[in-house]
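Inverse folding, one chain.
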C-alpha cells in the first residue's frame, strides 16, 4: 500500500476536522505526527509537532477534492520531493 502526503494542517482543530472528513468518506489515511503533536501543544513547527495527512494513492483524487476548501488560498501542502 503506497501512501501519498497531501496536506499539513495549520492547527489541531483543523487536523481533527480533516480526520472526520476522511472517516466520513471511508478514505484510508494516516495523520503522521498526530500523537506527538498533542504532547507539545502550541504553534506548529515542522521540526517538532507538525502533522501530515497521508492517504492511499488510489484514493488521492477523492481526498484532494475533499481537501480543496482547506487548500484554497494559503495552502500548507508539503514540499514535493
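Residues assigned per position:
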Amino acid at each position: 500500500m503506497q501512501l501519498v502526503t497531501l496536506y499539513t494542517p495549520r492547527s489541531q482543530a483543523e487536523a481533527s476536522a480533516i480526520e472526520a472528513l476522511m472517516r466520513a468518506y471511508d478514505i484510508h489515511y494516516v495523520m503522521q505526527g498526530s500523537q506527538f503533536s498533542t504532547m507539545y501543544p502550541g504553534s506548529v513547527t515542522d521540526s517538532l509537532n507538525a502533522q501530515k495527512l497521508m492517504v492511499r494513492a488510489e484514493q488521492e483524487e477523492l481526498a484532494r477534492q475533499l481537501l480543496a476548501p482547506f487548500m484554497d488560498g494559503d495552502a500548507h501542502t508539503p514540499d514535493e520531493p
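The chain is about 40% helix and 15% strand. Strands lie at 3-7, 29-32, 52-56.
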